[in-house]
Design brief:
alpha+beta, Nuclear Transport Factor 2, Chain: A, 143 residues
Length: 143
């Protein structure tokens, strides 16, 4: 391999790695914006950040669609008061990303405040130029 070709290959690898890092940052920002929108009950941001085919599985096993989740937040049925992700990890493959993290949260549901530590997996699709949450599943873990 010539020096020039080797240099071009190395430059291409650097650009590919930088692109993957940038996309991971985009996914982390999208997840943070989604969590903030859930706490603030920011309906326009939720509608923009949740994929129309969303399957949102809560830690108690209940599954919500996009519209059902937004409605439960808007009605106050579920009130996310504090949501703090811990050590999120992102794997981006093309226009799909998988994010895993632990999360400490305080949620009010059925008139009771719950302090929870969960582990969650979130799958994001890149559509219309933005990362949208398509699948979410969480499970309780010891704090």
């Amino acid at each position: 391999m010539t020096r020039k070709l080797a240099g071009l290959v190395a430059a291409g690898l650097v650009l590919a790695c930088a692109s993957a890092v940038d996309r991971s940052g985009e996914v982390l920002a999208a997840d943070r914006a989604r969590l903030d929108a859930m706490v603030a009950v920011d309906r326009p941001t939720l509608e923009s950040s949740l994929h129309e085919s969303l399957q949102y599985t809560h830690s108690n096993g209940r599954v919500d669609t996009r519209d059902a989740l937004i409605e439960s937040l808007a009605s106050g049925t579920v009130d996310y008061q504090v949501v703090r992700p811990i050590d999120p990890q992102v794997e981006v493959r093309g226009e799909t990303a998988v994010l895993t993290a632990r999360v400490a949260m305080q949620v009010e549901a059925a008139g009771k405040v719950h302090d929870l530590t969960l582990r969650y997996t979130a799958v994001y699709f890149l559509e219309d130029g933005r990362w949208q949450l398509a699948v979410y599943q969480s499970v309780g873990v010891a704090p």
